[in-house]
Protein 1
Amino acid sequence: MVTQRIGVIMNGVTGRMGLNQHLVRSIVAIRRQGGVPLPNGDRLVPDPILVGRNEATLRDIAGAHGIERVSTDLDACLANPADAVYFDATLTSRRVDHVRRALSAGKHVYCEKPLAPTTVDALDLAHRARRRGVKHGVVQDKLFLPGIRKLKRLVDGGFFGRILSVRGEFGYWVFEGTDDDRPPQRPSWNYRKEDGGGIILDMFAHWRYLLDHTFGEVRAVQCTGATHIPERVDEGGRRYAATADDAAYATFLLAGIDGDIVAQFNSSWAVRVYRDDLLQIQVDGIRGSAVCGLHRCFVQPLVATPKPFFDPERPQPMVFDEQWQEMPDIDPVRNGYRAGWELFLRHVVEDAPFPSPFRVGAKSIQLAEACHQSNRERRWVDLAVLEI
Ligand SMILES: NC(=O)c1ccc[n+]([C@@H]2O[C@H](COP(=O)([O-])OP(=O)(O)OC[C@H]3O[C@@H](n4cnc5c(N)ncnc54)[C@H](OP(=O)(O)O)[C@@H]3O)[C@@H](O)[C@H]2O)c1
């Protein structure tokens, strides 16, 4: 067995996503298990250099995870030919600049979603990457969730017959920061439009690839955005105006194999959870229905569908939740961020297929922009096929 090294410049590992999911649960976990196994028996071991703005924080993180290299000089890192891959999990508003510099330096680039604040910027990055002849990709972690995989298996197996509708309910309460003992769970830039915040740009990036992949391409959208909580408190205890949307109520038209499917998604950081999970999706088809969360999935075929009735004089005697059957687990749970890394590293080294290059990432931003337009103009917006 031969061990192959691959140098990875990681930017944004002092942040929530960069540290917990990409560094600790992906790159460090892969290194601890001896690398990514390749078909020829070799192991591909990522060798990260942590880059950021605060050297002391970077050294603390590196020390805690057995990593030797840190830097506060991105351009010097990009100039080092020994590191072939650039990864970006910095603020959404910083990504385009970082990725352009990495592409100019000839690096393969993997990054968090959304790829850019606008579709034009995202397509520009896709063009540049293609011209430079490097590999490129955007994170699509939600596709690896067990609940979504079970749902996809039901769709592909024809369980639903003709699918009629999809209903997604996403969200949880994000504390405003006004109580000392209830700090906000998300960074304050998420609530400032000028810093790349907003639930539409953040979450619809996920909804686009999830819907496209599971049911069929999103063709049109109608969306109402809202800023339910207009003022919040930031990391430094200062009050600030929340200028970005913190909730969005959208209806999509999807190109299903048996015709159009209507999908409604409510997304909110100002809602309290009374469901089994933070995301719950219900699919109703002619021959059966399913309800899935991030992990579990329940089904009810037509033959087992009850006939409920409405009685204004007595409480409902049927316990509807008990009338569904839970799907068994299909395969071992994989961390979706780590799975994405393994695919991307193999894409770079042995040209293995990778499902979400930059042009696929651009589609997510196209959907977010269409939602903003729909909200502004109070109408349906069609999504054009993106050409690059
Ligand atoms: N796939 C998913 O499920 C998922 C979930 C959440 C977020 N995300 C995406 O991940 C990205 C980061 O989100 P997060 O929640 O992790 O944010 P975060 O906790 O605020 O972290 C932001 C990171 O960006 C760095 N940064 C901030 N300002 C910068 C600047 N001016 N120049 C260079 N670096 C700067 C920060 O470094 P310092 O420590 O130096 O400030 C930190 O490392 C966003 O694009 C977001 O959309 C994806």
Protein 2
Amino acid sequence: MKTMTCRDLGGPCTLEHHADSADAIIQAQDRHLRDAVKSGDTTHQEARDAMKGRWLHPRKSLDWYNGVKNAFASLPAA
Ligand SMILES: [Zn+2]
């Protein structure tokens, strides 16, 4: 398991996600952003919109995606 925070993934808070793969971390962040915005947390709106845009334009988002993958790969496993 490795840990990345909401902030590591472009969000505004320090909530930690734990997962075995970068994809799982991104999914956890996506869920977190969705839940935060749904519960009225406006600080997560911008990151939520950015994440939504990534699903709509996956090719344009490759840099971000690869950046997260690289960051994940370079983390020490816990
Ligand atoms: Zn957050």
Protein 3
Amino acid sequence: MDALYYVTIQFRIAVPTNNAISLIFFASACDYHNVMRRIGGMIMAVVLVLGACDKKEPETPSVKPSERLPSFESLTRGARLYQEHCAQCHGPEAQGHPDWQNPQVIAAPPLNGSGNEWKRSKRELLNIIQNGAKRHGEWAMPAWKGRLSNLEIEDIVTWFQALWPTDVYDRWRKANASSSPSA
Ligand code: HEC
């Protein structure tokens, strides 16, 4: 019984290290056939246990393409900076000025996925925020370079992109994946 106990111990060690030599060494020290039969039974038991583990293993949740997983810090920073610097023109919920489609006036467009902003690549969005936009030689959209860091601008984009409806965001993501992989 002592010998068998040793074989059991060795067997457990042997499995993860793939060390079959120590197993045979201990098996030959006692009733070979009896021990081998028991080892056979143990192997079967281990195989069954492993098989059961395989089945029970929970499926790794796959991240769907439409899922956006920005960090909480990035979102809260973006929301705060947006309210501070952008909301007075683009609206507190990034809905845009009511007259944004009127060509007679210069009014800020939506950034919440309901305008044309989602037709721009990430690079284009960052560009216009950094460099602003002029109409008829006048600043329509102020430049933020030097006033906001790249990270702060990224966080603002992250925040307003989180407002985009899933289908809009998916279309934007697909368009960007094919046209400009670096965006
Ligand atoms: C003084 C008002 C004003 C402020 C403040 C302002 N914007 Fe704008 N923004 C505009 C106007 C007006 C346009 C449209 C420019 C044009 O049509 O040429 C615009 C355009 C944009 C666009 C392009 C949208 C599109 O549909 O192509 C983005 C992106 C944008 N702004 C982001 C921001 C962000 C981010 C901030 C804050 C950091 C901000 N804006 C602050 C007035 C403003």
Protein 4
Amino acid sequence: MSSTDFDCRYCGDRMRIRTSKQLHPDYRKLYLECRNPDCRAKARAEFVVTATLSPSGRPNPNYQEKLAEHVPWQCTAEST
Ligand SMILES: [Zn+2]
């Protein structure tokens, strides 16, 4: 996750991921902090796997829940 950057909504600088928790195979909660020392805004974000684009060659037989099928992200997300 360290290569993922977010733009700070307040100052436009880059935010880093301070920590994150994976609460579901398709869902991770992220805690962000702005890198700009004059800003230092903190935010919480969510990371959701919304679709399988290519099936796994090693599917997990225990994986049953497809979280994104039950949340409204697909209604508002871009189709690509
Ligand atoms: Zn900022």
